[in-house]
Amino acid sequence: MQFTFPRKVIDYSHATVRLPKEERLMRMTTTINTKPLAMLSALLLMAGFAGVANAADVYLQTQSFEKTMPDGAPVPMWGFATCTDDTYTSCTASAPGPQINAVAGDTLNIHVNNTLGVPVSVTIPGQAGLSDGAAVPMDSAPNRVRSFAGETPAGDTTTYTWSSLKAGTYLYQSGTFPSIQVPMGLYGALVVAEATPGEAYGYAYDAEAVVLLSEIDPLQNIRVHNAIVANSLSLDTVDCVPVEDYEQAMTTGVPCTVDYDPTYFLINGEATVELPSATVTDDTALLRMLNAGLRSHTPSLVGAEVAVIAEDGNKYPGQPRKHSAVLLAAGKTLDAIIALPNADQTYSLFDRMPTFSNENLPNGGSLASLNVGAGSPTIADRESSAKNDTYEIVEDTPTTVTVSVLENDADDLTGPIAVS
Description:
Layout: E1 2-5, E2 8-11, E3 32-33, E4 52-54, E5 57-68, E6 74-83, E7 91-92, E8 99-103, E9 108-114, E10 136-137, E11 145-147, E12 157-162, E13 168-173, H1 178-184, E14 187-193, E15 199-200, E16 203-204, E17 207-216, H2 218-229, H3 243-249, E18 264-267, E19 284-291, E20 299-301, E21 306-311, E22 314-315, E23 321-323, E24 333-339, E25 345-351, E26 368-372, H4 411-414
Parallel strand pairs: 3-26, 4-8, 5-9, 8-14, 17-19
Antiparallel strand pairs: 1-2, 5-6, 6-7, 9-12, 10-11, 13-14, 15-16, 17-18, 19-24, 20-25, 21-22, 21-23, 21-24, 25-26
């Protein structure tokens, strides 16, 4: 199978490619919208997620699939597919996995059916009480850990249980070789709501949105895929294969993650997300931000100030921390509240870390838009008032133009020009 990247053609069986390290300015557009809590029929829409799963029992299946990037290039991925029941016959794969919604105090059972060729696991950093939370050491190096939770072997099914969930915003992800398996796509968002609707960490809000950031290094994903095909992806070794050895000798094995070099950036699993506009104005919105990538990001909401109230599910002491931009480190979650104006307005959300470009594809440089009410009005394109002027020129003959170049233009160009 051949996969086409910009300027390169890659065959999975013997791929060798080094993507150029260009200056990467994030250029992508998406829309995040809020919803009135009173609208019971309106669920929080998360474009890019496979769906929304509610506690207490969630059925996930690990799958391998291809994801098409913004430039049309397919990349091998892993993902937690959402399944309807414990037969695992009706499952939809995606990366990230489905958003899991729960309520504080719930018991959450995540049933994982593993179809990959390596063991996996599920951890939720910030949530205590995992039923099988014992770390798994390496056989070859007992003093080193390969998994932060009990593993689900290839072809097997395991249930992971958390009792008495704590309210907040969390990532769920594979705890087995997370530097490899999480970038491959084994992650998702867990939202644990307060028992009191419309309240988070003691702050009232009227609407909410989830922003899940992630990255993809296509070369690392291809190398992991090739190692699985060659049966050389050992999770019980301290050795890794540098990218130089892979390029020069096609050496397969566990990639050295120090070579991690992401070239694609995603929000809610997509480069561009379109959500319908909301009708909420003059209210308070809760923005749940998560970073499943291995790089830090700095989301900034242009023209608005966000008040950060919690980090990793833990409420900040004292007053909210007000920022125009927030540092969202790798693996971290932040919750912030935003006072919405009593007017139709659109706020642009972008990453102040100029390290990603989605292969330099143009799309305005914006990660997302937060629409309040109907959003800012769209300015219609205006036809140019200036018209082309045509002259006939005879070689070696002087040409005299007696008609003003403004003669055939619109009236707004022929009158006096006011300068202020």
